[in-house]
Design a protein that fits this description.
heterodimer; A: 76 residues; alpha+beta; Mth169, Chain: A; 3 strands; 29% strand; elongated; B: 222 residues; Rossmann fold; 5 helices; globular
């Protein structure tokens, strides 16, 4: 089984990298971009028997820092 | 008085921190990240600056899961003293010993220069050698020093007088100019600026010396 974890800074937490990307897109003439948030995608290769609950625990303990980040899990 | 300084792969301020402790009179031992216990009788643990584990995933995230960090957390939970500087501060927030998190600097640039820090409280072993309101010159050297905590946490830190240092001119976007914070029992300090880099005439400033001297005196009588 595979799982894909998306980690994003929470709303309300300043994302200076996303802001820099937004500025750069503006400089390239993409004037319809109103906001950019940059996050991470982590792909996990899981052994038989692993569950979504296991991945949730991984996110809580390591993959995301829930003080500043939110995460979502896609099982594939 | 015994101090232990933790060494992670990628630590680069471990020896500086050890020297600062030694000059204040501590007997210092270096502890490798794979060790699972601190040396017997350690009074204070120093978690140094650097780029532990290459800052992979998040600054301090991997180090926070290392065997020695479990011992550091246990030491702090027992009421032991700990000082986390720069990456050490990031690690202590990742372990949950200190609240909040350190984000990328608001200006996106790595900043390396001496900044003016205001001593926000003298009520801790770390800051007792200063007067509240003193402004001291301490170097910063970080890319991810933008302190963030939710409004409730920041209010609690202020109510409990746990903000140790604030920036006079905020260099990195930290909420309420916070540069360093104390644990609830005031025995753990995390700060982004480097007091160990201002503890010898050769550094160009000695404003950090008072912290190590006060630690040596107070830990000895604790």
């Amino acid at each position: 089984m595979k799982a894909r974890v998306h980690v994003m800074l929470k709303n309300g937490v300043l994302d200076p990298q996303g802001e820099a990307v937004r500025h750069a897109l503006g400089a390239l003439g993409f004037d319809k971009v109103e906001g950019v948030r940059q996050g991470k995608v982590i792909d996990l290769e899981l052994a038989e028997g692993a569950t979504e609950a296991d991945v949730t625990e991984m996110c809580e303990k390591l993959l995301a820092n829930t003080v500043i980040e939110s995460y979502s899990i896609e099982l594939q | 008085m015994k101090a232990a300084v933790v060494v992670f792969p990628g630590s680069n301020c471990d020896r500086d921190l050890a020297v600062a402790f030694e000059q204040a009179g501590f007997d210092v031992s270096m502890v490798w990240h794979k060790d699972s216990a601190l040396p017997e009788g350690v009074d204070i643990v120093g978690v140094p600056g650097g780029f532990s584990y290459g800052d992979y995933l998040r600054c301090g995230a991997i180090a926070a899961q290392s065997p020695i960090c479990k011992a550091v957390v246990a030491h702090a939970e027992r009421g032991g003293y700990a000082l986390g500087v720069c990456n050490g501060f990031q690690i202590l927030t990742e372990t949950g010993v200190l609240p909040g998190a350190l984000l990328r600097n608001a200006g996106l640039k790595y900043i390396c220069r001496t900044v003016d820090l205001k001593v926000a409280t003298s009520d801790s072993v770390f800051t007792q050698g200063y007067n509240a309101g003193d402004v001291i010159g301490i170097p910063i050297a970080h890319h991810d020093g933008n302190y963030f905590a939710d409004a409730e946490t920041v209010a609690a830190l202020k109510d409990q007088d746990r903000v140790a240092f604030t920036y006079e001119a905020n260099p990195n976007g930290s909420v309420d100019d916070i540069a360093g914070i104390l644990s609830e029992n005031r025995r753990v300090l995390g700060m982004m600026p480097h007091p160990e880099r201002a503890s010898d005439e050769g550094h160009g400033g000695t404003d950090g010396t008072a912290m190590f001297r006060a630690l040596a005196g107070l830990v000895a009588t604790a």
